[in-house]
Amino acid sequence: MSFACRNCGGTTAQPVYSDVVDRFQGTPGAYAYVSCAGCGLIQLGDEPPDPAELYKNYRVHTGDSALQRAMRKLLIGHCYLEKPGDGKQLLDIGCGNGSYMQLMASHGWKPTGYEPDAGYAASLAEKIGFPVLSGLPALEQHAGEFDLVTFNFSFEHLFEPLRTLDLAAACLKPGGEIYIVVPNIESREAQIFKDRWFHLDPPRHITFFTKQLLGDHLQRHGFDDIKVKNIAVPTGFAGSVSYKLLGKFQPLAWYAGMLPGVLFSTVVRDGNFAITARRTA
Fold first, then answer.
1. CB neighbours of 85 closer than 8 A, spacing ≥ 6?
2. For 168, which DSSP code?
3. What is the CB neighbour count within 10 angstroms for residue 165?
4. Could you tell me the domains of the chain?
5. Please, are residues 12 and 4 in contact by the beta-carbon 8 Å criterion?
6. 201: left (phi over 0), alpha (psi -120 to 50) or beta
7. Which of 40, 91, 208, 269 has its Cβ near the most Cβ atoms within 10 Å?
8. What is the rounded distance in angstroms from the CA atom of residue 226 to the CA atom of residue 217?
9. What is the pLDDT of residues 166-203, one digit of tens each?
């Protein structure tokens, strides 16, 4: 296997998990996660298949009924940065089904989304009535335009995380804010469930930057006032129980595991973390 670290460019890695499968969507194939010998970043060992194929009928993109919105608000609403916008510009990278953009628009923000697949981006823009960019070159055309850039559970999906982070930094106005929330590979939840951890999610989750690695990159990209906090998310425990008992995502098992998931994540609050920082002038 030819390996090039997506963080430091190193060419040597150690195995972490092998022959892991997509238990969420059932994408064919088995995958491996490795740890870079140079920087320690845990990442997908091989290049994943065509991204467009990975997200066909993706539950996160398609689920937007009133009940699903209510459940999302109740269970993970606290994960998202929510504040008044007063006409400020938002760029949501990995905007999914656009629900966060719509929420922020209701608070006075002018939102723009980003999705890597051009076809999906175009259809989403038509559906929600907000611009949705596609392709990293498109970000180069918006330097210094935005007051806030968000990666809501999207940074771990990126094929080119550091290039995207660099472009995101360039998109911010001086004094603009970046907000990134990601699964925590160093969490006790990840250590308990190992290759059946819900947030491992192969092959869509490509990298697992730690708090230290991500904070270091933000510093190098010209950010200060860097703050990190753990976030309690019950869905990780509930999904992991479904994987452990049934070997796949099963909605009824997931819902049944939600109450113990709430209890677990209330006591053990490190399954995910959020990092915020401000771009220096």
1. 104, 107, 108, 109, 110, 147
2. H
3. 24
4. 50-197+220-279 (3.40.50.150)
5. no
6. left
7. 91
8. 11
9. 999 999 999 999 999 999 999 999 999 999 999 999 99
